[in-house]
Write a structure and sequence with these properties.
By secondary structure, this protein is mainly alpha-helical. The protein contains 17 helices and no strands. The chain has helices spanning 3-14, 40-49, 52-56, 75-92, 97-106, 115-125, 132-143, 152-159, 170-194, 202-208, 212-225, 237-253, 263-279, 286-291, 297-306, 310-321, 324-327. Helix 4 packs across helix 11 (212-225), helix 5 crosses helix 9 and helix 9 runs antiparallel to helix 11 (212-225). The N and C termini lie far apart (66 Å).
Length: 328
């Protein structure tokens, strides 16, 4: 028996009847022979980790743009924290951890530089609109080496991880919760570090806990105990309310806080780059110029800009629009 087949048998014997079994995947768009050692979801995880888009997440903003302190989260550390939380939940619920991990690692691959400010800027500029979750799917389906050919379940979890979208698997639903749990808690930690807030209001700490670890534990425990053997992923009403009330508080107090890179500055940089490459498509990297043959110019420019790290976007802006003598 192959190692992969042993793992698949272990899943049948061990996982919840509500879990997605690797051998029951809906498959890939393009046929590939199966691996002797890894399951299909393990292969997806590995492809995402080894992708260029995944590596670029290390220099993309989570909340605080171009911070001087090394301890602020980036889009990569956010991704790892989401995945860790989601794996804890999935293991407790006996769901498929490999599927959960693959979705978690891939969910933000399409995020822009400068966080959600960059996303909003591209959404306003592009006649077709822009959203990071759709872009994440475009990255794995098309942009990364012509497409990673991931399984249907991983792709579904990636594109449905946020907003009103609902994943079709419990593993995808776990990621949807884990994303909120992770970003709210680590953004509080970073906001305190930045001096934007001293702490969250007592109304939240009384329900969720007074420190980072306690809040994470409260959310995870509540999610697990309210989801066991139900065929669904859900929190209790009071904890879910606290989650969304805390999210509203963070948007009002932290995510809109003024900074060196205010939204209008991000919009200016993104718009200038967009306008420049719309008129100078020949100056884009070869991959994007090649894609112009089959894709709309606006979409290709969004692909190029969305793929940039913060550092690269700032450097390119300076190179194109700031005279050399000004920076000497």
């Amino acid at each position: 028996m192959l190692i992969r087949e042993r793992t698949e048998d272990w899943e049948v014997q061990t996982l919840s009847p509500h879990a997605i079994l690797s051998k029951n995947t809906k498959g890939r768009e393009r046929f590939e022979p199966k691996c002797d050692i890894r399951t299909e979801f393990q292969r997806d995880r590995d492809r995402i980790i080894h992708s260029k888009a995944f590596r670029r997440l290390k220099d993309k903003t989570q909340v605080f743009i171009a911070p001087r302190n090394d301890h602020y989260r980036t889009r990569l550390t956010h991704t790892l924290e989401v995945t860790q939380i989601a794996r804890t939940v999935s293991r407790a619920l006996r769901l498929n951890e490999d599927l959960t991990e693959a979705i978690g690692l891939g969910h933000d691959l399409g995020h822009t530089p400068f966080g959600h400010d960059g996303e909003r800027a591209l959404d306003e500029l592009s006649p077709h609109g822009f959203s990071h979750y759709k872009q994440s799917l475009r990255v794995v389906d098309f942009l990364e080496d012509g497409g990673l050919n991931l399984t249907w379940e991983v792709r579904d979890g990636i594109v449905n991880h946020t907003g009103k979208n609902i994943p079709h698997t419990l593993e995808g639903k776990v990621i949807k919760y884990a994303d909120k749990i992770a970003y709210l808690n680590h953004d509080i930690d970073d906001a305190v570090r930045a001096g934007v807030i001293k702490d969250i209001p007592e109304e939240f700490s009384l329900v969720l806990g007074k420190d980072f670890s306690s809040r994470i534990n409260t959310f995870i425990s509540d999610l697990v105990y309210n989801s066991i053997d139900t065929g669904n992923i859900a929190m209790s009403p009071n904890i879910e309310k606290a989650l969304y009330d805390l999210r509203t508080y963070m948007f009002n107090v932290v995510y809109t806080a003024p900074s060196k890179f205010a939204p209008e500055n991000v919009k200016f940089i993104i718009s200038k780059l967009y306008e420049y490459f719309f008129s100078h498509t020949d100056e884009m990297p070869a991959m994007y110029k090649q894609n112009l043959k089959e894709c709309d110019t606006c979409d290709v420019i969004c692909d190029f800009i969305a793929g940039m790290s913060d550092k690269y976007a700032i450097h390119l802006f300076q190179e194109l629009f700031i005279p050399q003598s000004f920076s000497d």
